[in-house]
Amino acid sequence: MVEALQWFIGLGSTVFLPIIIIIIALFFGVKLSKAIISGITVGIGSIGLDLVIGLLSSNLGTAIQTMGEKYGNSLSIMDIGCGVGGPLAFSTTLGICIILISLGLNLVFVMLGWTKTLNVDIWNFWFPAFLGLVANAISGSFWVGLLGIIVALMIQWLLADLFQEKISNFFGYPGIAITHMMALCGTIFAIPVNWLFDHIPGLNRIDADAETIGKKFGIFGDTVIMGLIIGIGVGILAGYDVAKIGQLGMTTAAVMKIMPKMVAMFMEGLMPVAEAAKTWTNKHLNGRSVNIGMDAALTVGHPTVMTTTLIMVPVSLLLAIILPGNKTLPFGDLAFYAFAIALMVPFFKGNIVRSILGCSLYMVTMLYLSTWLAPVITNVFKLAEYNVGTAGLVTSVNCGLWPVALFTILLQSIGWIGLVIIGVIVLGLLIYVNKIKKPAVQ
């Protein structure tokens, strides 16, 4: 069974995701021909997203590396990046186990009405698996790691349920829940920070969503031009010559234009499945709604998300240099900030000024947590037999998040009992939110 799952994951997300979509579509009663078209369309959209993200990463990544070498020589802990999280997690027994545990337990919770999220985003099971590996690395016990996975999955479903309506309405994805746990973590930070912004005179009157900026600033408010300007700025900071600066500017402008079209294709394939799921649940689950859990990649094409992500690259480097006590050199995650901050944007109401300020504050916590958690994260890499070379301590800025800190504190202080306590609390909240009181996140 383990070998079969490893083989399936080894097919790559652009192959196994369409297969999963086809199977789920057929389960919900979609005709075979339509199910196949939906699955293939989702696969094409996934390939398109990978190409665009790869285009941004390969071009921006080189500039980022140069910037890091120029400005971050005093930082001793290397950010190896969350991009290795999936391969790392799925190369372990815990990472393989999570596939069966998540799919099986999730279906039970859906049938019991304890969650409204049916998560099919198998690739991003890696983050709950990573939390399980954290539990394993700290405790030295495989079984504590398994407990950590179950608790992490319940936290994932709870966050997805709580914020589905807000996120779905903002991005325009009915019947879809974003289950990318790394992205969901930021919502907990964004809500109180946005409340604070609401009570700061002057700031609470700034209307700076993408549409308003476009109207006020004309051509300079267009997302393509903003991408061009940001790319040129990063090229200048990296010390590029004129040709390379222009090429980087055009690349970021192209990404700003192409990304939303790839997301639209992704959604084109998903919508028939979401509609069929709604019809099926109305018939078989007494009208209870079920949302299809998907990747945060669906949200990164939003103009505010993309603009904020690009601006966070130089901001994170500046913060890393000036923050006292920070030892993390942002590197591996610089091109992937979108996946950590995308779901914060709806809670900042799409306001670019609030998003940049709020995400900058969030980055402060991520840098400090990734520095503090570096010994634990390094042990996780070693547990998975991942070669970190001669880097010494390694970390991931995008993994410097509150669930990782919470697991670490509990396990280091009271052991596995801490995970049991959190698990009971989260289970109670899931039942309360979905069976007793409907969520009302506005």
Report the structural category: mainly alpha
What does the main sheet amount to? 3 strands, parallel
Order of helices and strands: HHHEHHEHHEHHHHEHEHHHEHH
Counted up, domains total: 1
**Strands, total number:** 6
Rg computed from alpha carbons, rounded to a whole number of angstroms: 21 Å
Q: Can you count the helices?
A: 17
Could you estimate the helical fraction of the residues in percent?
Answer: 55-70%
Percent strand: under 5%
Q: Report the average pLDDT across residues.
A: 82
The termini sit apart by 43 Å
Spans where pLDDT lies below 50 across 5 or more residues: none
Strands side by side in the biggest sheet: 5-1-6
Shape: globular
Pfam family, one: EIIC-GAT
Protein name: Galactitol permease IIC component
GO molecular function: galactitol transmembrane transporter activity
Keywords: Cell membrane, Membrane, Phosphotransferase system, Sugar transport, Transmembrane, Transmembrane helix, Transport
Can you offer a commentary on this structure?
The protein has one domain. 69% of the residues lie in helices and 4% in strands. The protein has 17 helices and six strands. The chain has helices at residues 2-10, 13-27, 32-71, 85-89, 93-112, 126-139, 142-171, 181-198, 210-217, 223-237, 242-284, 303-322, 338-341, 352-372, 374-383, 402-413, 416-436, and strands at 77-79, 117-119, 176-178, 291-294, 328-329, 394-395. It has a three-stranded parallel β-sheet with strand order 5-1-6. A three-stranded parallel β-sheet has the order 2-4-3. Helix 10 (223-237) runs parallel beside helix 12. It is globular. The mean pLDDT is 82.
